[in-house]
Write a structure and sequence with these properties.
This protein is an alpha/beta fold. It has 2 domains: 9-192, Vaccinia Virus protein VP39 (Rossmann fold); 203-273, Helicase, Ruva Protein, domain 3 (Orthogonal Bundle), CATH 1.10.8. The chain contains 11 helices and 9 strands.
Length: 274
């Protein structure tokens, strides 16, 4: 097939066509000759050839069957490249990345409509990653880099912030794509941390606390925690008092360390008060 096939709106395809931006992304990704690289959603391949030249191994995950076939055909002579024709949200990333002993460098221009879901999938395999360079809708990028007590601060900010150092590299404007999206994009660099930014105890409980705290933004933290599975049977007054947190506050005012404090207490004490 030709790579010039019209973008599919149903897949949220906005193909990168600005070569200056391509070069900046590749430079930002810092690909080393022995790197194993995962590219999610290569599209027409604006980044792919550069990655194939630099990486020790390159795996492409492409949901568009025609584009996956296109890349498989044109890169068939390169034994270092593997093309996976699949939905990244259904791929067992842990099994895939465990095939290589080293850690992976991830590069992706993520479709806006699934970017948050993909971020959470990548969070699950943070221990297998050395670096991520992701293009996201600017609004999502702003959310990831936001501080407590602002409108952008939310679940992704806290959960990704536990395991990644996140830095915005540069902004990409709509004219760099075909078709043009209606919003700006941002290139973000994610550096996985060797240890979490805060000690949270049971990480499943931590995620439950964070998601509950943001579930009803206009409600107080105490009211939000009442409906959380992770606090079932817990004396919330004791929990909040022990963690020195005012239950009348709203979830978006809590820092990562304060969420961690709640999670640690629940991890250590919840079974005793259930």
């Amino acid at each position: 097939m030709s790579s010039n096939r019209r973008p599919l709106k149903s897949l949220g395809q906005n193909f990168l066509v600005d070569q200056n931006v391509v070069e900046k992304i590749i430079n930002s990704a810092r690909i080393q000759p022995d790197d194993a690289v995962l590219e999610i959603g290569p599209g027409r391949g604006a980044l792919t050839d550069h990655l194939a030249e630099r990486a020790g191994r390159l795996v492409l995950i492409e949901f568009d069957h025609a584009l996956a076939a296109y890349h498989r055909e044109r890169l068939k002579e390169n034994p270092r490249v593997t093309v996976i024709d699949a939905d990244v949200l259904k791929v067992d990333l842990d099994a895939l990345l465990s095939e290589t002993p080293g850690k992976w460098n991830v590069v992706a221009n993520l479709p806006y409509n699934i970017s948050t879901e993909v971020l959470f999938r990548l969070l699950e395999v943070h221990h297998r990653l050395s670096r991520m360079t992701l293009m996201l809708q600017k609004e999502v990028g702003d959310r990831l880099a936001s501080e407590p007590d602002c409108s952008a601060y939310g679940v992704t900010t806290v959960l990704l912030g536990l395991w990644f150092d996140i830095r915005r590299s540069f902004i990409v404007h709509p004219g760099s794509f075909h078709p043009r999206p209606k919003v700006d994009s941002a290139i973000l660099n994610f550096t996985p941390l060797l240890t979490p930014r805060a000690e949270v105890g049971n990480e499943n409980i931590f995620r439950g606390v964070v998601k509950a705290a943001f579930s009803m933004r206009r409600k107080t933290l105490a009211n939000c925690l009442k409906s959380a599975e992770c606090t079932k049977g817990t004396d919330l007054e004791l929990l909040l008092k022990s963690c020195d947190i005012d239950g009348r506050r709203r979830g978006e005012t809590l820092s990562l360390e304060e969420f961690a404090r709640l999670s640690r207490w629940l991890s250590e004490n919840a079974p005793l008060v259930a």
